[in-house]
Amino acid sequence: MNALQYAQNAVELFAFPDSYIRVKELMESDTASLDDIAEVILLDPVLTSKLLKLANSAVYRLPYQVESVSKALLVLGKAQLYNLVVSIAVSSACSKFSSSSIDLERFWEQSINAALIGKYLANFCGLRQPDRLYVTGLLHNIGELVVMQQAPEQAAQCQNYTDETKPWQLQQATLGFTYAACGAELLNLWQLPDSIVEPLARQHSTQFNASEPDVLISYLTVRLALANQHPDLYSIKTLVDPFVLELLHLEQADLIKAIDFCNTEGLFILSVLNPRISTIY
């Protein structure tokens, strides 16, 4: 099977909550008000609770406590709130899976680290709507869950990467595609915005262009999260092409700060998005 076939088979497995579908419809509507959106979110107590916890986390650095969904919408805006709802919906859809074929603790920790690193770098580089890089980072490896559900032995094989064979190289050799390619196909089937899907799909691209900062940050995000997860195997210097830093006007010290940020905030975000995993820490 190719990446698209895996994704097509997985669409039903990764079912989004009804509240997400309705929120998405309202977000895309020209006539829906913020109150209409807040009303739908409030019908889902789990979504409401997680949304307010994330909105009040250090990730958003709001000057005051946000105590209602309506206030969160006003302060964050529709775009940021939509991205938050997406991240909660995806983590909810994925968290019900269990498997002995892959290390789910590693999967979630690395995904959340990538999300936080992506948001930090997008903010640092002055990108508009940096939350899209948060979502891209969170979902960057969702293809692994897709393969895990349908081909557990191959998913287990793909965990045997080394300092010489990077994860995406092993995935390509084992499956004929990368988890990034499979994840992008799934996100397209979910009809997520191109601004999220495109950087995810091209996270392993080595065609660097200063006019595509989202793709460059996605490239960095994946490699920094990997180096942070496996310091025994990888380092920033061995994973990151210095030309990318030059194009984004970044220094090594900026990357270290991004990693520090994810290490500081990661456990809290993990506890909100996937409490089942976070209880073991």
TrEMBL record:
InterPro entries: HDOD, RNase_Y/CdgJ
Domain HDOD: from-to ranges: 13-206
Taxonomic superkingdom: Bacteria
Protein name as catalogued: HD-like signal output (HDOD) domain, no enzymatic activity
Organism (species): Arsukibacterium tuosuense
